[in-house]
Amino acid sequence: MICLKTPPLRHDILISDHVGWNSQAPKLTRILAFPTKKNQPLSLKIRGAAGKTGNLMEREKEMEVADRRALAIKRVKEEAAACEDCLRDFSLFTTNARGEATTLFVQSWTPVSVKVRGVVLLLHGLNEHSGRYSDFAKQLNANGFKVIGIDSIGHGGSDGLHAYVDSLDDAVLDVKLVMEKVLAENTGLPCFCFGHSMGAAVLLKAALDPVVETHIRGLVLTSPAIGIKPAHPIFPYQLSAANKKGVVSTRDPEALLAKYSDPLVYTGFVRIRTGYEILRITSYLQRNLRRLRVPFLVLHGSADAVTDPEGSRKLYKEASSTDKSIKLYPELLHDILFEPERKEVAEDIIEWLNKRMQG
């Protein structure tokens, strides 16, 4: 058993347990939290799949990845057959940047009835996948934007244990590598990036790289993980709650049901290493927001109980970007593109993108 102190509102804590697949810990571990009295240490019990060898567990992980990827591909093909206004496609992007071959699932939405004017690189949030943004991507298509969605490592159709993130620095590198390929294949088209929550944090860190800065026209960030609220499931005292009943991330009951019944959305116990990585990147961003010079639009629901709207305010206040905009939506929760007001949010994003295309 290990003990972690209940974190304060600010997330300057360290979680040292490493949950994952390696020679030292060849078992898939599940974390169960047992709340104690207020301000007392949190007791966590770690349960594993005893009696299984690392090789067997690795094979099971590979099978799980194969199932997720097959479903992601099936959905793209089904949409491709039904969509008249866009071309749906996917690719498997393999990189050796981690020292071993890693395959990412990348999907695209390309307009066919209007001229392509620009490209939007899309990165989803924690536990979800790029396919959830298909409706939004089609709205972008209608305005002349080709959309490239990346499934982060451990998410959707990409390699890795579901929702396990060993390092978000790897995710930042993945974005840079895919972006390099996208730019090469779409020469002359302005490139924008869209990111939600964890994906927004990853894109922000990538945009601090001077090389990336020169290649993108702007960032659109929804509910960015710059500040994390205590209700976020990554915090230790939230780990006991599986997400099936879920963090209420939208006031639309149908959208909430669709999210948590989607097999490609992870609804198990939050993985400690993943939580640690999110805390680490938010801490890094808060110390480096002044370095951001890329034009950006940040949007946040004022009632978000997962990521803190104050983080978006801090970004807007401290970033060195001369072209920066912020919009806070009263009463909206975390998944603002799945709220009843999703049309208004999408229109605000498209209006911002269109203005930067004219500039």
TrEMBL record:
Residues 115-341 form the Serine aminopeptidase S33 domain. It comes from Daucus carota subsp. sativus. GO terms for molecular function: hydrolase activity. This is Serine aminopeptidase S33 domain-containing protein. It comes from the Eukaryota.
